[in-house]
Amino acid sequence: MSFLHLKDITKLYHKNTEIPAVHSVSLNIEKGEIISLLGPSGCGKTTTLRMIAGFEQPSEGTIELDGRMISSGEKAVAPEKRNIGMVFQDYALFPHLTIKKNVMFGLNQWKTREKRKRADEVLDLVGLASYGNRYPNELSGGQQQRVALARALAPKPNLILMDEPFSNLDAGLREKMRYDVTRILRETGTTAIIVTHDQKDAFAVSDRIVVMKEGEVQQIASPKEMYRCPKNCFVAQFVGKTNLMAGTMCQDLKHVDTHIGKVCLASHSEEMIENVKISIRPEGCRLSEEGRYNGVVETVTYGGEFQELTVRLNGSTEEAMSIYAPVETDIEPGSVVSFDITPELVALVE
Length: 350
Ligand SMILES: Nc1ncnc2c1ncn2[C@@H]1O[C@H](COP(=O)(O)OP(=O)(O)OP(=O)(O)O)[C@@H](O)[C@H]1O
Ligand SMILES: [Mg+2]
Known about the structure:
Layout: E1 4-11, E2 22-29, E3 34-38, H1 45-53, E4 60-65, E5 68-72, E6 75-76, E7 84-87, H2 99-104, H3 112-125, H4 141-153, E8 159-163, H5 171-187, E9 191-196, H6 199-205, E10 208-213, E11 216-221, H7 223-228, H8 233-238, E12 243-249, E13 255-258, E14 261-264, E15 275-280, E16 285-287, E17 293-302, E18 307-313, E19 321-325, E20 336-341, E21 346-349
Parallel strand pairs: 3-9, 3-10, 7-8, 8-9
Antiparallel strand pairs: 1-2, 1-4, 4-5, 5-6, 10-11, 12-13, 12-15, 13-14, 15-21, 16-20, 17-18, 17-20, 18-19
Helix pairs in contact: 3-4
Bound molecules: adenosine-5'-triphosphate and magnesium ion (MG).
């Protein structure tokens, strides 16, 4: 049995609304796993988190945590009895309490001495041991967020839920916090669900990613698998950039005939489906002197680590392809390029 088990969870905020905020979501999470919920605005990420935390009651389905049913039909364990820690987007620190008192706040059942000891312990863990006597407004955004994490970790919860924990931070700090938060969660062996709509966050912090759209789970996979083998067009486009194209499956079940020619798949298709769609990642197209595919460069966008080319395949009236080329290569719009496609970055998509 998994550590956290969501079974067919549905949430209808209003009985007469037709579209549920969350629709039949099932999810199994193992102890110590870090999971990201990723998806566009309004797809039901926060609602899912709130149901796990106990702030919302599912309309249907059951939730079990650590072998205990915490939500089933009308029966629900109160949020404070679930032993779940929560970190909100705005950190929700009490401005009139010192950092240490903020951290001690969640420990009201503990003896005062134990409370102080534990607060020191977790503040040390998040690298803020000497900040205990300050007030929240005397800390930077990243420091406040670490306090919020320390407060959530203090009661030694079974599970930590974080809703958009990095969204208030600027790019540089965001990257550092991704690293810090993951390290702290790993060090303490904490099971965590992190809600984000930023795929970089999801890729960097999680063991597995759950992509949602309109209340439904689209795919659950490791970051690498999600990137290499997106299940459908939505996932392929939402998680990174891609070239989608229609084609016909060849008899060998290993190639697809498209407007750019035959493209080799990462693995054999298990069945013969005549009309298919494939996703080709821009990194999967490698410029090469005598590549199999040829085209004319329409635009060049310098991206720092790479340059993005749009390439119109010879004579094609279809959308130009997006290709990432190394920055050291000199390419101008109008250049003729040839390239090969790495099968590992080609996937059949629904
Ligand atoms: N309290 C509520 N009452 C009624 N409808 C709600 C309520 N909270 C959310 N919804 C609706 O449920 C759907 C899912 O909302 P939710 O907040 O879970 O999305 P989200 O994925 O967290 O989006 P975002 O990325 O913008 O935070 C939306 O259509 C939203 O309007
Ligand atoms: Mg939300």
